[in-house]
Design brief:
The complex is a heterodimer of chains A (about 300) and B (about 260). Chain A has about 300 residues and is mainly α. Helix content of chain A is about 70%, strand content about 5%. Chain A contains 11 helices and 2 strands; from the N terminus they run H-H-H-H-E-E-H-H-H-H-H-H-H. Chain A has helices spanning about 1-30, 40-55, 60-85, 90-115, 140-160, 165-175, 175-180, 185-210, 220-230, 235-260, 270-285; strands at about 130, 135-140. In chain A, helix 1 (about 1-30) runs antiparallel to helix 10 (about 235-260) and helix 5 runs antiparallel to helix 8 (about 185-210). Chain A is globular. Chain B has about 260 residues and is of the alpha/beta class. Helix content of chain B is about 40%, strand content about 25%. Chain B has 11 helices and 10 strands. Chain B has helices at about 40-50, 75-80, 100-105, 115-125, 125-130, 140-155, 170-185, 200-205, 225-230, 230-235, 240-250, and strands at about 1-10, 15-25, 30-35, 55-65, 70, 85, 160-165, 190-195, 210-215, 215-220. The chains are: A mainly alpha (about 300), B alpha/beta (about 260). Chains A and B meet through helix 6, helix 7 and helix 8 of A and helix 2, helix 3 and helix 6 of B. Bound molecules: adenosine-5'-diphosphate (ADP) and magnesium ion. The site of magnesium ion (MG) has 4 residues of chain B, from helix 1.
Amino acid sequence: MTDLVQLASSGLALGAIYALIALGFVAIYRASKVFNFAHGDLLAFGAFAMVAASGIGLPWPLALLAAMLATGLLAMGVERVILRPLVGRPVFVTVILTIFVGYLIRTAILLIWGSNPRGMPTPWEPTATVEILGAKVLLGSLAALAGAALALIAYFLLMRFAKLGLAMRAASADQESALALGIPVGRTLGLTWLIAGMLAALAGTFLGMFPRQVEVNLAFVALAAFPAVLVGGLESALGAVVAGLLLGLLQVLAQAYVNPLLGHFGHNFHMVFPYIVMIIFLIFRPYGLFGEAEVKRV
Amino acid sequence: MLAIHNLEVVYNQVVRVLGGVSLRVDAGETVALLGPNGAGKTTLLRALTGLLPIHNGVITKGRLLLEETELARKAPERIVRAGLVQVMEGRRIFTDLSVEDNLRAGAHTRRDGEVRRDLDNYFTLFPRLAERRRQQAGFLSGGEQQMLAIARALMAKPRMLLLDEPSLGLSPLLVAEVGKLIRVIQQQGIAILLVEQNAALALSLAARGYVLEGGKVVIDGPAQTLREDPDVQEFYLGGAGQRRDFRQAKHYRRKRRWLS
Ligand SMILES: Nc1ncnc2c1ncn2[C@@H]1O[C@H](COP(=O)(O)OP(=O)(O)O)[C@@H](O)[C@H]1O
Ligand SMILES: [Mg+2]
């Protein structure tokens, strides 16, 4: 039981991080129809920005805010300068371009911060635990869950009730139609990338807290969140979040219970496990958890 | 209200689609713009509402004045704020947004606090939309979608409305409904430029009309005169049915993405 609580808490924390990554990815896809393969690099950039912001003495919450803003602005710049001029080009062009952008960001990180791993600053002892149902749960896990929950709730409130959120939904449904109503579509795109970048930095900050360290390869974790995007249904924000949480949980449980069964072969089984889930899932539900064929009427 | 002088539009730097079009709509007046498929009617509306750049088109000559405001090359947002709104061909409602959100999106440029009240007014005017206000707009019938598209544009509180083939693809019964709605708009004192293939409908609603062919105005005058013109009778008041069906198949749901 205590094992299970411990695993569930770290699984959910990992899942919350996946949810943040997947949500940003889906937001960008819905707005720009771009598969942003640079998303993991934005995440890594955010983690380094967090380390740097704390390094210059900013208190933790301010440092987090600064790191999120810096990453958001970087994402916004990528959209404005590199992707927007390629209007109407085939999808593979933008895909290749985002891979290239990711490479640029990675190079920039190495140039600015070097290749040595850093420790992620935390306002509490990195190994501090809280007792829940008799199990020792990392405070960092709880913080990741709480932080992600706050960000996700804020995102859904914005999209559901704010005028800006409505403009974003309208623009992603039909750009020209939105323009014709006076909605500044270019600006909504920029803001979508800003938000996605901020979510990536938040994910990077929490990810860097776990025994894992802050280094460039943090970017590859975003690849593990990719199945969450597809399982959730590429266009569904809610699906991305639910699938992210589930995959995090499954991955941690697989690591604890399935890997040992597979002996040598199972050494890193939990890393491929999300992909196996994704493939099986997509065979039975090609539109994802909450995805559906688009409503159309002629 | 609206004055177009000698408008020229070129697509992709080479294709000239409008070659010196002049046109006028007075305050509160309804004017019909007729013409065959490909004449440049939609292009003219795009020039007015700042939607040419996303189609790789440019205004190479001419002036577009909404009262004293020059519209040429302005951002769509500024044009809507100036009081000119377009209902695009093919309705183009946001299918996965709710009916109510579609209407709210129409009010995006407004800063006054009356949006709520206007929303209620439209729901009173269109009980069928009110019943479905929380449903996805994609589930509405074609006629309801057209009403929604027009109501959505009206939510911007325009002084002038541009309607691009509102009767396209609708049954005769629904065409009559659209006609009724246009009369309601006229009574509110909103000027209308009505682009139509259905000349009978357009000329029954408009005070004056223009016929555009190959990017030039070939006939213009009072609606009565146009109705009696032998050419207009031959080409626009008879045998339009088949052509409309063909156009519907071709144009409907032609969505473009330009900023992605
Ligand atoms: N984006 C575009 N690029 C190039 N040519 C275009 C474009 N849009 C329309 N055209 C051409 O301009 C002409 C006028 O089109 P349009 O304004 O849509 O006519 P209408 O609305 O009267 O049917 C047509 O010959 C059409 O092929
Ligand atoms: Mg047209």
